[in-house]
Please model this.
Amino acid sequence: MKHSLHRLQRRHGLAVLALFFLPNAAHAHVKWFCGPIDASLPPAPLSQVLSQLFFTCLVGFAGLVAVGGGLDALLARIVPATREGARRGIVVDIVVRIGLAVYAVCLWRNLAVVLWADDATGSVLTPEMVNRAHWIGLLQLVIAGMVLVPRLSLAASAGLFTLFAIGVARFGPFYMIDYLFFVGLAIYVALGQPVLRRRIHIASWRVSILTGSLSLSLMWTAVEKFLFPQWTIAVLLHHPGITAGFPFPSVATIAGFVEFSLSFYLLVGRAVLVRIAAVLLAGVFIMAMPEFGMVDVVGHIPVLIILVATLLQGETRLQQVFRGPVSSPWASARAVLIRYVAILTVLMSLYYGLHALSVWAEGKPVALSQPSPPSARPL
Model:
């Protein structure tokens, strides 16, 4: 019995290491590839989620996060925090605006429509949010032009908010929590209006808003891998090679922790670690592109835009607020560990609660049992 337990733990440890070298499973957005999703389906019961593998990963990744927090504090004594300068802000602004323009043109050209969309003419913000209205494509083209002109920042922001509102109207507010980084992008663009940048103090939080919205979005989708493993499994059925032979449910859980941990460091990292997290996240998104094709290439442009902005800017007020007033390595390790477990607990609790609330608000019965994983649709 004891030998079997050690063997299981060793296998789980190897699985964790394997996922670091096979990150595609962690960062392909499963909703783009597993077919239309019924958001009223219930998440997995908590008793099923909190498995032995889950707790093994929790202990392992929480330990890594704590060690990283301590090392980050130690490195901060050598590498000072980046000051937000005017030149750096200009470079970040150019990157974000050009990236958004390219993405909007790609949406207009229908380069990010999922393959299972039969008669759709385009997509709204993300590949799986298909639409049949030509005017939405024209709106995206107009946004591409306006976002390049700082004086039209408010108009471009309004266009982005309009597209997000269309997504909320069609898919519900709960579904759109995955894409809160579009709200962050819209706010960032709005605060780039020359008049607002000079007069509103919050304009200095532009990059913080970008990084925070992406971090929350990615941690939320990581939690989805725990609560809806069948979505990830549906993708893995078509890409079994990236699992290294490990069971699909185990891959989904480990991938969730990889994504959650790296995204968490976008919130708390100092000048060094926040950049390392941004580079690693960008790297795994890019590595996933050859495996998953054009939908992933185009669909992840907004994410990469924000990660590049975070890499250029480094530490901002956001990380200082979330990390708290700690400076020593031991205190930093302890603070980061507590925040890691607390945020994971809060997001999982919110997911269960908000999902039940969204189903109730739509007038659908709340199912109490987890359905069997659906078979994956042809890609």
Observations:
- Strands lie at 122-123, 130-131.
- The longest helix spans residues 329-361.
- Confidence is low (pLDDT under 50) at residues 1-23, 365-379.
- The first strand starts at residue 122 and ends at 123.
